[in-house]
Amino acid sequence: MNTKYYVQAAVIAAVYAALTMLLAPFSYGFMQIRVSEALTILPFFTPAAIPGLFIGCLVSNLLSPYGLLDVICGSAATLLAALLSYKLRGTPWLVPLPPVIANGVIIGLMLHYGYGVPVNLFAIMGWIALGELIACYLIGYPLLRYLQKHKRIFQ
Amino acid sequence: MIRDITLGQYYPGESWIHKLDPRTKIIGTFVFLVALFLVKDFWGFLVAVAGLALVIGISRVPLNFILKGLKPVFLIILFTFVINMFMTKGETLVGWGFLVITREGLYNAFFMGVRLVLLIIGSSLLTLTTKPIKLTDGIENLLGPLKKIGVPAHELAMMMTIALRFIPTLLEETDKIMKAQMARGADFESGNLLKRAKSLVPLLIPLFISAFRIAQDLAMAMEARCYNGGENRTRMNAMRYSRRDLLAAGAMILFVVLIVMERNLI
Asked: Looking at this predicted complex, what is its ipTM?
Protein backbone atom coordinates (compact mmCIF):
# COMPACT_ATOMS: atom_id res chain seq x y z
CA MET A 1 0.00 0.00 0.00
CA ASN A 2 1.38 3.34 -1.03
CA THR A 3 0.61 5.51 1.98
CA LYS A 4 2.06 8.66 0.49
CA TYR A 5 -0.17 8.45 -2.56
CA TYR A 6 -3.31 8.19 -0.44
CA VAL A 7 -2.26 10.92 1.96
CA GLN A 8 -1.46 13.28 -0.90
CA ALA A 9 -4.86 12.54 -2.38
CA ALA A 10 -6.51 13.22 0.97
CA VAL A 11 -4.76 16.55 1.35
CA ILE A 12 -5.71 17.60 -2.18
CA ALA A 13 -9.29 16.73 -1.21
CA ALA A 14 -9.00 18.89 1.89
CA VAL A 15 -7.64 21.85 -0.11
CA TYR A 16 -10.50 21.50 -2.57
CA ALA A 17 -13.10 21.36 0.17
CA ALA A 18 -11.55 24.23 2.13
CA LEU A 19 -11.52 26.47 -0.94
CA THR A 20 -15.07 25.50 -1.83
CA MET A 21 -16.27 26.44 1.64
CA LEU A 22 -14.28 29.63 1.86
CA LEU A 23 -15.75 30.87 -1.39
CA ALA A 24 -19.10 29.22 -0.68
CA PRO A 25 -21.64 31.71 -2.05
CA PHE A 26 -20.38 31.07 -5.56
CA SER A 27 -19.58 27.42 -5.22
CA TYR A 28 -22.90 25.63 -5.35
CA GLY A 29 -25.98 25.63 -7.46
CA PHE A 30 -26.53 26.47 -11.04
CA MET A 31 -24.85 29.83 -11.16
CA GLN A 32 -21.68 28.42 -9.77
CA ILE A 33 -18.16 29.54 -10.40
CA ARG A 34 -16.45 27.16 -8.10
CA VAL A 35 -12.93 28.48 -7.75
CA SER A 36 -11.80 25.16 -6.35
CA GLU A 37 -12.51 23.70 -9.78
CA ALA A 38 -9.27 25.39 -10.80
CA LEU A 39 -7.60 22.55 -8.94
CA THR A 40 -8.80 20.16 -11.63
CA ILE A 41 -5.50 20.84 -13.37
CA LEU A 42 -3.66 18.90 -10.66
CA PRO A 43 -3.78 15.53 -12.46
CA PHE A 44 -1.19 17.15 -14.74
CA PHE A 45 1.29 16.90 -11.88
CA THR A 46 0.32 13.83 -9.90
CA PRO A 47 -2.06 10.90 -10.33
CA ALA A 48 -2.92 11.25 -6.62
CA ALA A 49 -5.09 14.16 -7.73
CA ILE A 50 -7.59 11.77 -9.35
CA PRO A 51 -8.91 10.29 -6.08
CA GLY A 52 -8.07 13.59 -4.40
CA LEU A 53 -10.40 15.70 -6.51
CA PHE A 54 -13.09 13.03 -6.39
CA ILE A 55 -13.06 12.95 -2.60
CA GLY A 56 -12.74 16.71 -2.33
CA CYS A 57 -15.87 17.12 -4.37
CA LEU A 58 -17.63 14.33 -2.46
CA VAL A 59 -16.81 15.87 0.90
CA SER A 60 -17.73 19.42 -0.07
CA ASN A 61 -21.01 18.29 -1.55
CA LEU A 62 -21.74 16.15 1.51
CA LEU A 63 -21.36 19.26 3.63
CA SER A 64 -23.52 21.35 1.31
CA PRO A 65 -27.26 21.82 1.46
CA TYR A 66 -27.80 20.45 -2.04
CA GLY A 67 -28.54 16.89 -1.22
CA LEU A 68 -27.45 13.45 -2.21
CA LEU A 69 -28.13 13.80 -5.90
CA ASP A 70 -25.47 16.50 -6.11
CA VAL A 71 -23.06 14.38 -4.06
CA ILE A 72 -23.37 11.51 -6.49
CA CYS A 73 -23.52 13.38 -9.81
CA GLY A 74 -20.98 16.05 -8.91
CA SER A 75 -18.41 13.59 -7.65
CA ALA A 76 -18.91 11.28 -10.61
CA ALA A 77 -18.37 14.19 -13.00
CA THR A 78 -15.23 15.23 -11.16
CA LEU A 79 -13.82 11.71 -11.13
CA LEU A 80 -14.43 11.28 -14.84
CA ALA A 81 -12.90 14.68 -15.59
CA ALA A 82 -9.84 14.01 -13.44
CA LEU A 83 -9.21 10.70 -15.21
CA LEU A 84 -9.45 12.36 -18.62
CA SER A 85 -7.25 15.27 -17.54
CA TYR A 86 -4.64 12.76 -16.41
CA LYS A 87 -4.76 11.10 -19.83
CA LEU A 88 -4.41 14.45 -21.56
CA ARG A 89 -1.42 15.58 -19.50
CA GLY A 90 0.79 15.46 -22.61
CA THR A 91 -0.82 18.66 -23.93
CA PRO A 92 -1.07 21.17 -21.05
CA TRP A 93 -3.68 23.47 -22.61
CA LEU A 94 -6.12 20.58 -22.97
CA VAL A 95 -5.84 19.58 -19.30
CA PRO A 96 -8.52 22.02 -18.02
CA LEU A 97 -10.99 20.95 -20.74
CA PRO A 98 -12.45 17.66 -19.36
CA PRO A 99 -13.98 19.24 -16.21
CA VAL A 100 -15.70 21.87 -18.36
CA ILE A 101 -17.35 19.22 -20.50
CA ALA A 102 -18.01 16.57 -17.83
CA ASN A 103 -19.57 19.01 -15.37
CA GLY A 104 -21.55 20.80 -18.05
CA VAL A 105 -23.09 17.57 -19.29
CA ILE A 106 -23.59 15.69 -16.02
CA ILE A 107 -24.65 18.60 -13.79
CA GLY A 108 -26.80 19.91 -16.64
CA LEU A 109 -28.58 16.56 -16.85
CA MET A 110 -28.96 16.47 -13.09
CA LEU A 111 -30.46 19.95 -12.82
CA HIS A 112 -32.79 19.37 -15.75
CA TYR A 113 -34.08 15.89 -14.94
CA GLY A 114 -33.31 15.52 -11.23
CA TYR A 115 -34.21 18.96 -9.91
CA GLY A 116 -36.63 19.74 -12.70
CA VAL A 117 -35.15 23.11 -13.65
CA PRO A 118 -37.38 23.71 -16.66
CA VAL A 119 -34.91 25.42 -18.95
CA ASN A 120 -33.68 23.96 -22.21
CA LEU A 121 -31.25 21.18 -21.37
CA PHE A 122 -28.50 22.54 -23.60
CA ALA A 123 -28.87 26.01 -22.13
CA ILE A 124 -28.29 24.66 -18.61
CA MET A 125 -25.35 22.58 -19.79
CA GLY A 126 -23.85 25.60 -21.50
CA TRP A 127 -24.39 27.76 -18.44
CA ILE A 128 -22.67 25.31 -16.09
CA ALA A 129 -19.88 24.77 -18.59
CA LEU A 130 -19.37 28.54 -18.79
CA GLY A 131 -18.83 28.76 -15.03
CA GLU A 132 -16.39 25.88 -15.24
CA LEU A 133 -14.64 27.44 -18.19
CA ILE A 134 -13.96 30.55 -16.14
CA ALA A 135 -12.65 28.59 -13.16
CA CYS A 136 -10.58 26.15 -15.20
CA TYR A 137 -9.07 28.40 -17.84
CA LEU A 138 -8.85 31.77 -16.09
CA ILE A 139 -7.55 30.43 -12.78
CA GLY A 140 -6.65 26.81 -13.43
CA TYR A 141 -4.47 27.29 -16.46
CA PRO A 142 -2.32 30.13 -15.04
CA LEU A 143 -2.02 28.01 -11.89
CA LEU A 144 -0.74 25.12 -13.98
CA ARG A 145 1.87 27.37 -15.58
CA TYR A 146 3.07 28.69 -12.23
CA LEU A 147 3.10 25.29 -10.57
CA GLN A 148 5.25 23.95 -13.39
CA LYS A 149 8.06 26.01 -11.89
CA HIS A 150 7.50 24.39 -8.50
CA LYS A 151 7.10 20.82 -9.65
CA ARG A 152 9.24 19.43 -6.89
CA ILE A 153 6.54 19.95 -4.25
CA PHE A 154 4.65 17.06 -5.82
CA GLN A 155 7.52 14.60 -5.46
CA MET B 1 -14.20 35.61 7.69
CA ILE B 2 -13.15 32.17 8.84
CA ARG B 3 -15.25 32.28 11.95
CA ASP B 4 -18.44 32.28 9.87
CA ILE B 5 -17.78 28.83 8.54
CA THR B 6 -19.19 25.80 10.26
CA LEU B 7 -17.97 22.50 9.01
CA GLY B 8 -20.94 20.73 7.58
CA GLN B 9 -24.39 21.18 8.95
CA TYR B 10 -24.38 18.72 11.81
CA TYR B 11 -26.86 19.65 14.53
CA PRO B 12 -25.73 17.98 17.76
CA GLY B 13 -28.43 16.03 19.51
CA GLU B 14 -29.32 12.89 21.35
CA SER B 15 -32.52 12.07 19.54
CA TRP B 16 -33.60 8.73 18.26
CA ILE B 17 -32.67 9.71 14.72
CA HIS B 18 -29.21 10.86 15.80
CA LYS B 19 -28.63 7.50 17.42
CA LEU B 20 -29.64 5.43 14.41
CA ASP B 21 -26.86 3.54 12.70
CA PRO B 22 -25.38 5.73 9.93
CA ARG B 23 -25.93 2.91 7.44
CA THR B 24 -29.64 2.87 8.17
CA LYS B 25 -29.80 6.61 7.65
CA ILE B 26 -27.89 6.51 4.36
CA ILE B 27 -30.11 3.74 2.97
CA GLY B 28 -33.19 5.49 4.31
CA THR B 29 -32.27 8.73 2.58
CA PHE B 30 -31.78 6.91 -0.71
CA VAL B 31 -35.13 5.20 -0.34
CA PHE B 32 -36.80 8.54 0.36
CA LEU B 33 -35.21 10.17 -2.68
CA VAL B 34 -36.24 7.34 -4.99
CA ALA B 35 -39.75 7.34 -3.54
CA LEU B 36 -40.03 11.08 -4.26
CA PHE B 37 -39.54 10.42 -7.94
CA LEU B 38 -42.41 7.93 -7.86
CA VAL B 39 -44.84 10.50 -6.51
CA LYS B 40 -47.00 12.07 -9.17
CA ASP B 41 -49.92 13.77 -7.46
CA PHE B 42 -51.07 15.69 -4.43
CA TRP B 43 -51.85 12.72 -2.16
CA GLY B 44 -48.46 11.19 -2.75
CA PHE B 45 -46.84 14.41 -1.66
CA LEU B 46 -48.99 14.47 1.41
CA VAL B 47 -47.60 11.06 2.38
CA ALA B 48 -44.05 12.24 1.70
CA VAL B 49 -44.51 15.47 3.67
CA ALA B 50 -46.07 13.56 6.57
CA GLY B 51 -43.19 11.07 6.60
CA LEU B 52 -40.59 13.80 6.52
CA ALA B 53 -42.39 15.83 9.19
CA LEU B 54 -42.45 12.78 11.43
CA VAL B 55 -38.69 12.25 11.03
CA ILE B 56 -37.97 15.94 11.64
CA GLY B 57 -40.17 15.82 14.73
CA ILE B 58 -38.36 12.82 16.15
CA SER B 59 -34.94 14.26 15.34
CA ARG B 60 -35.74 17.44 17.33
CA VAL B 61 -33.77 19.55 14.86
CA PRO B 62 -35.55 22.93 14.97
CA LEU B 63 -37.48 23.63 11.80
CA ASN B 64 -36.04 27.11 11.38
CA PHE B 65 -32.55 25.63 11.53
CA ILE B 66 -33.46 23.35 8.63
CA LEU B 67 -35.07 26.17 6.70
CA LYS B 68 -31.98 28.33 7.21
CA GLY B 69 -30.04 25.65 5.37
CA LEU B 70 -32.41 26.07 2.45
CA LYS B 71 -31.44 29.70 2.00
CA PRO B 72 -28.67 29.16 -0.55
CA VAL B 73 -30.97 26.96 -2.64
CA PHE B 74 -33.86 29.38 -2.44
CA LEU B 75 -32.92 31.02 -5.72
CA ILE B 76 -33.08 27.74 -7.66
CA ILE B 77 -36.44 26.90 -6.13
CA LEU B 78 -37.86 30.32 -6.94
CA PHE B 79 -36.46 30.20 -10.45
CA THR B 80 -37.90 26.74 -11.11
CA PHE B 81 -41.23 27.84 -9.72
CA VAL B 82 -41.50 31.01 -11.79
CA ILE B 83 -40.32 29.45 -15.05
CA ASN B 84 -42.69 26.53 -14.63
CA MET B 85 -45.56 28.86 -13.89
CA PHE B 86 -45.12 30.92 -17.03
CA MET B 87 -43.81 28.38 -19.50
CA THR B 88 -46.43 25.66 -19.28
CA LYS B 89 -49.11 25.80 -21.92
CA GLY B 90 -52.74 25.17 -21.06
CA GLU B 91 -55.90 26.80 -19.82
CA THR B 92 -55.30 30.48 -19.14
CA LEU B 93 -56.00 31.85 -15.67
CA VAL B 94 -54.38 35.27 -15.80
CA GLY B 95 -52.95 36.80 -18.96
CA TRP B 96 -50.79 39.83 -19.43
CA GLY B 97 -49.45 40.20 -22.91
CA PHE B 98 -46.99 37.42 -23.40
CA LEU B 99 -46.96 36.53 -19.70
CA VAL B 100 -49.65 33.98 -19.17
CA ILE B 101 -50.31 31.94 -16.07
CA THR B 102 -52.13 28.72 -16.87
CA ARG B 103 -53.85 26.29 -14.59
CA GLU B 104 -51.40 23.58 -15.67
CA GLY B 105 -48.50 25.96 -15.12
CA LEU B 106 -49.52 26.73 -11.58
CA TYR B 107 -49.98 23.04 -10.89
CA ASN B 108 -46.60 22.18 -12.40
CA ALA B 109 -44.82 24.97 -10.56
CA PHE B 110 -46.28 23.89 -7.25
CA PHE B 111 -45.50 20.24 -7.93
CA MET B 112 -41.88 20.83 -8.91
CA GLY B 113 -41.32 23.33 -6.12
CA VAL B 114 -42.56 20.98 -3.44
CA ARG B 115 -40.55 18.11 -4.82
CA LEU B 116 -37.38 20.18 -4.87
CA VAL B 117 -37.89 21.33 -1.29
CA LEU B 118 -38.59 17.78 -0.13
CA LEU B 119 -35.57 16.49 -2.04
CA ILE B 120 -33.27 18.98 -0.36
CA ILE B 121 -34.69 18.80 3.15
CA GLY B 122 -34.81 15.01 2.96
CA SER B 123 -31.16 14.68 2.16
CA SER B 124 -29.94 17.44 4.45
CA LEU B 125 -31.61 15.63 7.31
CA LEU B 126 -28.94 12.96 6.85
CA THR B 127 -26.08 15.41 7.32
CA LEU B 128 -27.94 17.30 10.03
CA THR B 129 -28.20 14.25 12.24
CA THR B 130 -24.99 12.38 11.37
CA LYS B 131 -21.43 13.46 12.11
CA PRO B 132 -19.25 13.50 8.97
CA ILE B 133 -16.93 10.89 10.46
CA LYS B 134 -19.80 8.51 11.15
CA LEU B 135 -21.08 9.12 7.65
CA THR B 136 -17.67 8.14 6.33
CA ASP B 137 -17.68 4.94 8.40
CA GLY B 138 -21.13 4.14 7.10
CA ILE B 139 -20.11 4.70 3.49
CA GLU B 140 -17.06 2.47 3.95
CA ASN B 141 -19.19 -0.28 5.38
CA LEU B 142 -21.85 -0.04 2.68
CA LEU B 143 -19.21 -0.09 -0.04
CA GLY B 144 -17.63 -3.16 1.58
CA PRO B 145 -19.26 -5.73 -0.70
CA LEU B 146 -17.94 -3.82 -3.71
CA LYS B 147 -14.36 -4.55 -2.61
CA LYS B 148 -14.65 -7.79 -4.56
CA ILE B 149 -14.98 -5.92 -7.83
CA GLY B 150 -12.06 -3.67 -6.96
CA VAL B 151 -13.67 -0.66 -5.29
CA PRO B 152 -11.10 0.50 -2.71
CA ALA B 153 -13.67 1.08 0.04
CA HIS B 154 -11.26 1.30 2.93
CA GLU B 155 -8.85 3.61 1.11
CA LEU B 156 -11.69 5.91 0.08
CA ALA B 157 -12.95 6.14 3.64
CA MET B 158 -9.45 6.70 4.97
CA MET B 159 -8.88 9.54 2.51
CA MET B 160 -12.24 11.07 3.41
CA THR B 161 -11.41 10.92 7.10
CA ILE B 162 -8.03 12.57 6.60
CA ALA B 163 -9.60 15.21 4.37
CA LEU B 164 -12.24 16.00 6.98
CA ARG B 165 -9.55 16.24 9.62
CA PHE B 166 -7.47 18.71 7.62
CA ILE B 167 -10.18 20.99 6.26
CA PRO B 168 -10.13 23.26 9.35
CA THR B 169 -6.32 23.31 9.33
CA LEU B 170 -6.27 24.35 5.70
CA LEU B 171 -9.00 26.93 6.18
CA GLU B 172 -6.88 28.54 8.84
CA GLU B 173 -3.82 28.29 6.62
CA THR B 174 -5.67 29.95 3.73
CA ASP B 175 -6.71 32.77 6.00
CA LYS B 176 -3.15 33.27 7.19
CA ILE B 177 -1.75 33.29 3.65
CA MET B 178 -4.43 35.73 2.54
CA LYS B 179 -3.54 38.13 5.33
CA ALA B 180 0.18 37.71 4.70
CA GLN B 181 -0.25 38.45 1.00
CA MET B 182 -2.51 41.41 1.74
CA ALA B 183 0.16 42.80 4.06
CA ARG B 184 2.49 42.58 1.07
CA GLY B 185 0.04 44.55 -1.05
CA ALA B 186 -1.94 41.77 -2.71
CA ASP B 187 -5.45 42.77 -3.71
CA PHE B 188 -8.13 40.07 -3.71
CA GLU B 189 -11.17 42.28 -3.86
CA SER B 190 -11.00 44.76 -6.69
CA GLY B 191 -10.71 44.63 -10.46
CA ASN B 192 -12.68 42.75 -13.07
CA LEU B 193 -13.29 39.03 -13.15
CA LEU B 194 -10.08 38.25 -14.99
CA LYS B 195 -7.96 40.26 -12.59
CA ARG B 196 -9.65 38.82 -9.54
CA ALA B 197 -9.27 35.30 -10.83
CA LYS B 198 -5.57 35.85 -11.43
CA SER B 199 -5.15 37.38 -7.98
CA LEU B 200 -5.99 34.00 -6.49
CA VAL B 201 -2.88 32.37 -7.90
CA PRO B 202 -0.51 33.91 -5.28
CA LEU B 203 -2.86 32.47 -2.69
CA LEU B 204 -3.01 28.99 -4.17
CA ILE B 205 0.72 28.38 -4.63
CA PRO B 206 1.71 28.80 -0.94
CA LEU B 207 -1.41 26.87 0.02
CA PHE B 208 -0.26 23.93 -2.06
CA ILE B 209 3.24 24.03 -0.71
CA SER B 210 1.92 23.99 2.82
CA ALA B 211 -0.64 21.26 2.05
CA PHE B 212 1.98 19.01 0.51
CA ARG B 213 4.23 19.54 3.47
CA ILE B 214 1.40 18.31 5.70
CA ALA B 215 0.98 15.28 3.43
CA GLN B 216 4.70 14.51 3.61
CA ASP B 217 4.75 14.58 7.43
CA LEU B 218 1.56 12.61 7.80
CA ALA B 219 2.63 9.90 5.34
CA MET B 220 5.93 9.54 7.14
CA ALA B 221 4.20 9.29 10.53
CA MET B 222 1.81 6.65 9.18
CA GLU B 223 4.58 4.61 7.61
CA ALA B 224 6.63 4.80 10.80
CA ARG B 225 3.67 3.21 12.59
CA CYS B 226 3.43 0.49 9.93
CA TYR B 227 0.02 1.53 8.67
CA ASN B 228 -1.01 -0.92 6.00
CA GLY B 229 -4.59 -0.46 5.06
CA GLY B 230 -7.86 -2.13 5.87
CA GLU B 231 -6.80 -5.72 6.38
CA ASN B 232 -7.68 -7.00 9.88
CA ARG B 233 -8.07 -3.58 11.43
CA THR B 234 -10.30 -3.18 14.43
CA ARG B 235 -12.31 -0.10 15.33
CA MET B 236 -12.65 1.90 18.47
CA ASN B 237 -16.37 2.41 17.86
CA ALA B 238 -17.69 -0.54 15.92
CA MET B 239 -21.05 -0.03 14.21
CA ARG B 240 -23.83 -2.28 15.31
CA TYR B 241 -27.44 -2.46 14.18
CA SER B 242 -29.89 -2.25 17.06
CA ARG B 243 -33.61 -2.71 17.54
CA ARG B 244 -33.99 0.96 16.62
CA ASP B 245 -32.69 0.25 13.14
CA LEU B 246 -35.10 -2.60 12.70
CA LEU B 247 -37.95 -0.29 13.56
CA ALA B 248 -36.65 2.38 11.19
CA ALA B 249 -36.42 -0.22 8.42
CA GLY B 250 -40.01 -1.19 9.10
CA ALA B 251 -41.11 2.43 8.88
CA MET B 252 -39.25 2.83 5.60
CA ILE B 253 -40.92 -0.20 4.08
CA LEU B 254 -44.31 1.09 5.20
CA PHE B 255 -43.53 4.47 3.64
CA VAL B 256 -42.57 2.95 0.28
CA VAL B 257 -45.64 0.71 0.28
CA LEU B 258 -47.87 3.72 0.94
CA ILE B 259 -46.26 5.72 -1.85
CA VAL B 260 -46.51 2.87 -4.34
CA MET B 261 -50.08 2.09 -3.35
CA GLU B 262 -51.09 5.70 -3.68
CA ARG B 263 -49.51 5.85 -7.11
CA ASN B 264 -51.27 2.79 -8.42
CA LEU B 265 -54.59 2.73 -6.62
CA ILE B 266 -55.82 6.29 -6.39
From this structure: 0.86
